[in-house]
Amino acid sequence: MLPYGRQSISEDDIQAVVDVLRGDWLTTGPAVAAFEARLGEVAGGHRAITATSGTAALHMAYGAAGVTRGDTVISTPMTFIATTAMASVLGANIVFADVEEDTALIDPDAVDALIDERTKVIAAVDYAGHPADYDRLSAAAARVDALVLDDAAHSIGSTYKGRPVGDLADLTTFSFFPTKNLTTGEGGALVAKDPLIAQRAHEFHFIGLVRDADRFAVTTEGAWHQEVHEFGFNYRLDDIACALGLSQLARLDTFRRRRAEITRRYDAALAGIDGVRTPIQRDDVELIRHLYPVRILDQRRREVFDRMRADGIGVQVNYMPVYWHPVYADAGYRRGMCPNAEAFYAEELSLPIHPELTDDQVDQVVESLVRALR
């Protein structure tokens, strides 16, 4: 089966991990610090805190933002459930804003219609690697003193109006799962513009430990002392994973170029093919395309999916609207809330795209798709 996504591991990546295994630090060591520093540079010069997963990074973001019971988080239904689940577990009320018909990104007009004084966070998702409209989302958030979160699980390496992902929102979370734009195995990170929020996130992911003597409530202990002011979690990413991540970051431009080549090849091959609608790219965006999501028209998505899978092509569907999941349906969310998102889901099919995909394999995918549409 030709996978829709997979990691690209070089000999340098392997050597980076081996070097850590032969060293003194397996966790909380220099590779973590180096990876976080480099991530911060890539993300616009802001502090980065690594995490055990993209989901953990989202939990850190909402926790550091002070999201709690009674707060509202406005988000998109066109995402993996972790985007909203980590706010839900903190007691937030999730309000789903519909997506733009053409991009499947959260629609700023829909956000404008939903935002109110209870809104704590607007959580956007850079679906398929394409950044959302952060100028308009930030303007909406500013009206009610809310924060903007960019779930950038798909988009590290993309830019919006010349600014890198990581510099577009108050909080940005990354995922480094093997199918993403770069990998640490499992892993993720949070980038925060506000240093105080960044420090809260750091402590949240470090079991809540405070090590700054100037902030100690207990002042009678020795140099060993550390204390907890707010409960946290152990979401620390280790040096082994961070060594791989640091090596992968050095290859990010190569990954971007190859994903762009594959995108252009798909665009050209599928232009004018009846029954298929290809993804768009806005003029103010440079993206590293994590997914290549076509739309299969005429209610044929399931048929085409099954035929291509039988043909050995690992197509995928990304994603079922979040509020269709039973955990939200049981809480009273109903189908029909976001018609654009539901229409997109009914047609979406992700074609294989990853740096190891060859031109011949891209052609094989196209041929399989064309056969499935006959």
UniProtKB/TrEMBL annotation:
Its cofactor is pyridoxal 5'-phosphate. Keywords: Pyridoxal phosphate. It holds the Pfam family DegT_DnrJ_EryC1. InterPro entries: DegT/StrS_aminotransferase (IPR000653), PyrdxlP-dep_Trfase (IPR015424), PyrdxlP-dep_Trfase_major (IPR015421), PyrdxlP-dep_Trfase_small (IPR015422). Gene3D superfamilies: Aspartate Aminotransferase, domain 1, Type I PLP-dependent aspartate aminotransferase-like (Major domain). Belongs to the DegT/DnrJ/EryC1 family. This is dTDP-4-amino-4,6-dideoxygalactose transaminase. It comes from Microbacterium foliorum.
